[in-house]
Amino acid sequence: MYAIIYDFGTSSVKTCLFNIDSEITLVTSSTAAYGIYTSKNGGAEQDTEEWWEAICSTTKALFGKSDVTPDKIEGMAFCSQMQGTVLVDEKGNALRPPMNYLDQKGVNEYKECMGSGIIKVSGCSLYKLVRNLIVNYAGSVSAKDPVWKYKWVENNEPDIFRKTYKWLDVGDYLVARCTGRIIRTADTAFATFLYDTRKGKEGWNKGLLKMYGVHPEHMPDIIECTDPVGGLTEKAANDLGLVRGIPVFGGGGDTTFVNIGAGCTRPGDTHIYVGTSGWVSTFMDHQTVDIDAMITGVLSAIHGYFNYYAELETAGKCFEWVMEHLALDEIGVYLGKTKITDVESKYLSLYDYLSEEVSKVPPGANGVIFTPWLHGNRCPFEDSGAGGMFFNIRIENGKKDMIRAVLEGICYHLRWLLECSAKKVKTSDKIRFVGGGALSSITCQMLADITGRTIETVDNSQQVGAVGTALVVAAGIRGTDVLELSRQLVKANHTYTPDPLNREVYERNYKVFKRLYKSNASNFREINNG
Predict the structure, then answer these.
(1) pLDDT exceeds 60 at position 195
(2) What's the rounded Cα separation, in Å, for the pair 292 and 108?
(3) Phi-psi bin for 479: left (phi > 0), alpha (psi -120 to 50), beta?
(4) DSSP states of 451-484 as a string?
(5) How many CA atoms lie within 13 A of 12 on its CB side?
(6) CA 155 from centroid of its chain's CA atoms
(7) What's the sign of the alpha-carbon dihedral 319, 320, 326, 329?
(8) How far is 503 from 501, CA to CA, in rounded Å?
(9) CB 283 within 8 A of CB 350
């Protein structure tokens, strides 16, 4: 069977055509970018028409790259960025530019609500935090959390707020545009931290809605990620170049499906993802939380299961920053020599090129350490004012040392998240490494050496969320168990074991890395928070 999956990321969509039979095959794919528009007040907004244009152009491109025709498509779904805020009218039209998960305009709304109360924990009202923890093992303890975006619109754009019919996440908006049905999937509902995860009580929690001042009528009906939503409308089909009536499944967030696409479908299976953001996630059959480290069990695609999820907000984004700024001269030379016309292939090739260059630098980057907090940090400490830094640059250090330090810094932080996760749950000895970061064997070995764990990779690593979503669609159409289907079809293709010769230098640098935030927290606060 053929399925189209939209891997809808922070800054681009990769539209994938899969064939799922005795194995899962990526037939072809097409990518298009869209903007993120930041503002000095912490805003990070996007444009729904740019989103839709990217989806339409990439969908049509699939059929120019393959022999598959639109009438052969049996299902479609979105695997999208999460914790955005899209306010829509009764027809599903966006009333204002969507706020991306990076948006933190609602910092005052956060402080006014969570900063009140006599007893506080990490600056948050203990009473409100405990109420949230009882309901869903989570809480809106960051200015980037969706409820503060919603409250910001209420306080600053009352005319728009009055017109609001429903409050959606990014993927839910796109599903509504395809089907005409306005719903939320359970995972994106949970991501508002207003959803009750207790067995038998699943759904919007009236007490939390009241506590945060959220209008109950703004909250859509909730379905499971694996549920079919409806058929593709005629208008959407015409825009996309598809056939009316193709089943559209609930889909959900990127974190929801990656474990399935990585083949981590038994409780205790751990994977590490590095894309624009990064995370460490362990598949669980129960929910738990670590308030100190800001880690919680988020809903998985399958009812009754959770992903214990620790996030690094800028992982691959740091390496993208390196490409655009630190390695500018190398990029100019490199791109001048290449004749690759496809942008994605060119930059994947560039990633390989830079990875090869940093492999010439010894482990430990000749003493240079980088902190990957280019847009603040969430786990294991919450600080929107934290920033990236290069530590211990000396006269003998060169640019290649700094580039390697960026990759090592990402891996140090992922180890930190892995260690924090292991305090609450049992993580697996073998870890699946997925996302664009796993395309470099240099980075894979680096991650093995720094974490001390065996690292495995899989096919279609960069599309792993889309793979998981495709398996959900296939299982839904076939009426089979998606977890078992994943175990059958997703296998490791390469294994990397820690090199003991690199242990000493990485242990030394890692200890220093973990101290850098505590040593500089007040400096970040003074410069970035006034």
Answers:
(1) yes
(2) 23
(3) left
(4) H-SEEEEETTGGGHHHHHHHHHHHHHHHT--HHH
(5) 16
(6) 28
(7) positive
(8) 6
(9) no
Could you give the CA distance from residue 449 to residue 140 in angstroms, rounded to a whole number? 35
Residues in the chain: 530
Structure tokens at 465: 């969320």
100: Cα within 13 Å, side-chain hemisphere? 22
Helices and strands, number each (H, E), in the chain: 18, 27
Distance CA 368, CA 192 (A): 39
DSSP reduced 3-state for 76: strand
| Token representation of residue 173 | 């908006």
Structure tokens at 113: 């609500």
Q: How far apart are CA 29 and CA 64, in angstroms?
A: 11
- How many CB atoms lie under 10 A from the CB of residue 217? 10
Instruction: Give, as one character, the DSSP assignment of residue 362.
Output: P
What pLDDT digit, counting tens, does each position of 361-418 carry? Answer: 999 999 999 999 998 998 999 898 999 999 999 999 998 999 999 999 999 999 999 9
C-alpha of 522 from chain center? 29
Q: Is 19 helix (H, G, I), strand (E, B) or coil?
A: strand
Structure tokens at 430: 């073998």
pLDDT, mean of residues 308-322: 91
Tell me phi and psi for residue 296, to 5 degrees: -145, 165
3-state secondary structure of 81: coil
CA angle at 94 for the pair 36 and 84, rounded to the nearest 5°:
50
Phi, psi torsion values for 450, nearest 5 degrees: -75, -40
- Label residue 172 exposed, middle or buried (CB < 10 Å: 0-12, 13-18, 19+): buried
The answer to whether 368 and 397 have CB atoms below 8 angstroms apart is yes
What are the angstrom distances between the C-alpha of 38 and each of 48, 94, 101, 102, 153? 15, 19, 12, 9, 16
Residue 373 phi/psi, 5-degree rounding, is -110, 55
Summary mean pLDDT of the chain: 91
pLDDT at residue number 492: 96
Dist. CA 225–CA 252, nearest whole Å: 6
- How far apart (Å, rounded) are the C-alpha atoms in residues 523 and 530? 10
Q: Which amino acid is at 250?
A: G
